[in-house]
Amino acid sequence: MELSSKVDYACIALIQLAIRHGQGQPISVNEIAHSQNIPIRYLDQVMGMLRRAGIITSQRGAKGGYHLAQEPWQIRIIDVVVALNGEDSRELQNDNQITPEKLVIADIRELTRRGAIDVLSKHTLEDLVRKCEEKKRSGIMFYI
User: Fold this and answer.
1) 125-137 and 77-85 are packed helices; what angle lies between their axes, rounded to 10 degrees?
2) pLDDT by position in tens, the chain (length 144)
3) Closest CA relative to residue 123, chosen from 71, 70, 75, 68
4) The model's pTM
5) How many other C-beta atoms are found inside a 10 Å radius of the C-beta of residue 106?
6) How far apart are CA 30 and CA 126, in angstroms?
7) CB contact set of 45 (below 8 Å; sequence gap of 6+)
8) Gene3D superfamilies of this UniProt entry (predicted)?
9) Torsion of CA 73, 75, 63, 38, to 10 degrees
10) Which residues sit opposite 76 in a β-bridge?
């Protein structure tokens, strides 16, 4: 299970939505993209995928943008990963030469997948927001 840049950008955008959740005002893709230095077109595609998955809702118009569809504690990170990447259902190829080595690698891949699913299922968007706030309070500055 891969955590791609698409998942990274989605989580960053969702953290922004979670921070302002309950304030009533939607957040535009432009606002998120500019504040987080994310390419607007790419983020727009990611937000569309999240909307189709029911993780966020959109509001049209001049003051439009996005809201979380649920409370932050209800949105699991695994749901975000699945919404963007789909279910990871890699299996052994249908070749005629299934070897013990290939089976061992398939077993390791499955253990890794299960471990990732377990970790991502236990963490919610609210957890990410809390960790983000902890980083802000600790005064750590990042320079690029």
Assistant:
1) 110
2) 667 889 999 999 999 999 998 888 899 999 999 999 999 999 999 999 999 999 999 988 888 899 999 999 999 999 999 999 877 545 555 556 788 888 888 888 889 889 999 999 999 999 999 999 898 888 766 565
3) 75
4) 0.80
5) 14
6) 23
7) none
8) Winged helix-like DNA-binding domain superfamily/Winged helix DNA-binding domain (1.10.10.10)
9) 110
10) 124
Rounded-to-integer distance, Cα 84 and Cα 4, Å: 9
Question: What is the rounded CA–CA span in Å between residue 18 and residue 121?
Answer: 18
DSSP structure class, residue 58: E
* Lookup: tokens for 125: 């968007």
Cα–Cα nearest to 26, from 82, 54, 68: 68
* 30 neighbors 16 (Cβ within 8 angstroms): no
Taking Cα atoms as reference points, which of 26, 34, 77, 33 lies closest to residue 55? 77
Strands (E), 1-144: 56-59, 65-68
Of 22, 23, 46, 43, the C-alpha closest to 34 is 43
CATH entry, 5-87+124-137, from 1.10.10.10, 1.20.1260.10, 3.40.350.10, 3.40.50.300: 1.10.10.10
Q: What does the alpha-carbon distance between residue 32 and residue 43 come to, in Å, rounded to a whole number? A: 9
